[in-house]
Every structure is written in C-alpha cells, then in structure tokens.
Design brief:
There is one protein chain. The protein has helices at about 15-30, 35-40, 50-60, 65-90, 90-110, 120-130, 145-160, 170-190. With about 190 residues, the protein is mainly α.
Length: about 190
C-alpha cells in the first residue's frame, strides 16, 4: 500500500489573516499592559478628525480583552470562516468583515460614548448568520437561518436586557443582522 504525502494548505487567507493579526494584537496587549490595545485595537469615542479614530474602527476586531476572549472568537472564525471563504471568496468575505467592523464601531461610538469596544464578536455573529445561507435556494428562507437568528440574536437581546457584564450584546446583534442581510443578498443575487 502506498502512503500519500499530505501538505498543509493556506486554505482561507482572510480568516487565517484575522487569526494571525488577532494573536499578535492580543499578545502585544498582554506584553504592554494593554497600551497597544488602547492605542490600536480598541474603538471608543475620540475626535472624528483623528485618523486613529477611523483606523481603530477597523482594527478593534483584532484586539481581545484576554486569552479566553481571543480563543472563543477565533474558534468560531476558524470553524465557520473557511466554508464561507470558499463559498463567497476572499474578497467578499473581507468586505463582510470590514462592514461589520465599521458598523459595530460606529454604533458603539454613537450609543456608548464611554465604552471601549474590542474583539471580533460582531464578525463571529455575522459569520454565524451568513453560514446559515450556505445551502440557499431561490424563493426560500432556510429554517436553519430562522432558528439560528432566534437562538443567537434572541439570546443576545435577553442577555443585553437582563445580564450586566462587559459583553457588547449590541455588537453581536449588529453582526448577526449584517450576516443575515448579506447572506440573503449574496444568494438572491447569485441565484438569478
């Protein structure tokens, strides 16, 4: 019997890029006592004319509060991301990530002026709802999408109302809404 050699492939460049940058950002935050996290990888209300305000609108998804936060988000991204990147392509998935990052940053900026936001949780929720459209057929709304929306978004609404913690449930909800709308839109467009 002949044994085939296997090789490791760089199968999802956007997802692997996010994981790599997030690892470095979280490590830097740990090593600098969160100085780099505050300067580069957290979004918060600051002057609109400052270039750093707009850079952090994108880069806050790479910073994480601690290693558990990092591992939780990266696990979901690594689970869902490669499938989504294969279906929609790297460019489209990067667009989903960018739109979600800016949207969650802007909502945080407007509604929570005294709150610092970091982490890829909004992107995770976008991926969760986007993934429920992977077997979409024209004229149908997948039951899996409805159930995922009810379970994940419903949980975030309940926790946002009844649980006081440092988790940005609104970012999760916004990410989920973006993933749901884009998933539907991408699939309606490609089915025509």
């Amino acid at each position: 019997m002949k044994i085939r050699k296997s090789k490791i492939t760089f199968n999802a460049p956007v997802v692997l890029g996010i994981v790599g940058i997030s690892f470095v950002a979280t490590l830097l935050g740990y090593l600098t006592g969160d100085i780099t996290s505050r300067v580069l990888f957290t979004t918060y209300r600051s002057a609109l004319w400052s270039p750093m305000t707009w850079i952090r609108a994108f880069t806050h998804i790479f910073g994480h509060a601690d290693w558990a936060h990092f591992v939780g988000n990266m696990s979901y991204l690594l689970l869902l991301g490669p499938m989504l990147e294969e279906k929609y392509g790297s460019k489209t998935l990067a667009g989903v990530v960018a739109v979600t990052a800016v949207a969650t940053s802007l909502v945080n900026y407007i509604l929570f002026p005294n709150v610092m936001l970091c982490g890829a949780s909004g992107v995770v929720f976008a991926f969760i709802l986007l993934s429920s459209f992977t077997s979409f057929k024209q004229g149908e709304i997948p039951l899996t999408f409805i159930l995922v929306a009810v379970f994940f978004i419903g949980q975030q609404i309940l926790e946002g109302v009844f649980v006081r913690d440092n988790i940005s449930n609104l970012s999760h909800i916004i990410g989920g809404i973006i993933g749901g709308f884009l998933g539907y839109g991408f699939n309606v467009r490609t089915e025509k």
